[in-house]
Amino acid sequence: MGKMLLMLHQDAAIAAKAGEYARWLIPGLFAYASLQALVKFLQTQAVVLPMLLCSFITLLVHIPVCYILVFKLGFGNIGAALASSLSGWLNVVLLLLYIRFLKTCSRTWTSYSREAFQDLKGFLKLAIPSAVMVCLESWAFEVMILLSGTLPDPQLETSTLSICFNTLGLAYMIPFGLGAAVSTRVSNELGAGRPIVAQFVVRVALSLAVVDALSVASLLLSVRHVWGWAFSNEAEVVGYVAAMMPFIACVAVMDAIQGVLSGSK
């Protein structure tokens, strides 16, 4: 990855660190894939609180582990990536233990069989376009970061954009939750033959998303001059983040709406 970033005319120091970080995230990719399957399995059954508890436990473990690996053991970026991978696997293990040993999923968790692969073609017809949609959305942000690395001051530009995208990611958490909820409810209502109720669910979720988006946008605009200090101690970076905040607020509003609509389709 470091060599690929150099081919894309990125700063040599940034490319080396990014490539190093990406390599140590590889174990976490398998955890993330497993976690998504487990989360969808539980969401379709409206089993939410156990996932929240497992995530909270993972967070409590992640903070000290990340601090120890990064600062105490001196692993730096590698420690941060390794902590993320370990936390992903911890979350997977906790959910598997819950599914396996508690009675909530005793009637839905079955052993593997060939029957699971009978309609693989139909599954892929849904999975591949959905994956492409998610990739294109994510890559749109990543391409902007890559382009910022070609500017005259790449460290300043990439730092600013990274803060902006992290802010957008934080603001997206509530719409993401609403999207997951509306996806489950719409699927259940359509499966039960109640399309009118499914439409009502989408309207309610969309209304909540608009209220959340306007609230978050107002908050971001009100703290735009101090928000950057939460990420950086460089006054120049903080100033750039403040200048970008009106655009971030607009994107947050649109992102909230599309997040709910993506979950309802």
Task: Fill in the keyword field for this structure.
265 residues, mainly alpha, globular, 2 domains
Walk me through what this model shows.
- The chain is an all-alpha fold and 265 residues long.
- The chain has 2 domains: 110 residues, no CATH class; 112 residues.
- The chain has 9 helices and no strands.
- Helix 3 packs antiparallel against helix 4.
- The longest helix has 32 residues.
- The chain is globular and about 55 Å long.
How would you sum up this structure in a few lines?
This protein has 265 residues and is an all-alpha fold. Helix content is 80%, strand content 0%.
Low-confidence stretches: none
Class from secondary-structure proportions: mainly alpha
- How would you sum up the major sheet? none
Count of DSSP-assigned helices: 9
> Total strand count, please?
0
Q: Average pLDDT across residues?
A: 86
> Could you tell me the radius of gyration in angstroms?
21 Å
Structural domain count = 2
**Form type:** globular
- Termini, distance in Å? 35 Å
How do the SSEs run, as a string of H and E?
A: HHHHHHHHH
Give the % helix.
over 70%
The portion of residues forming beta strands comes to: under 5%
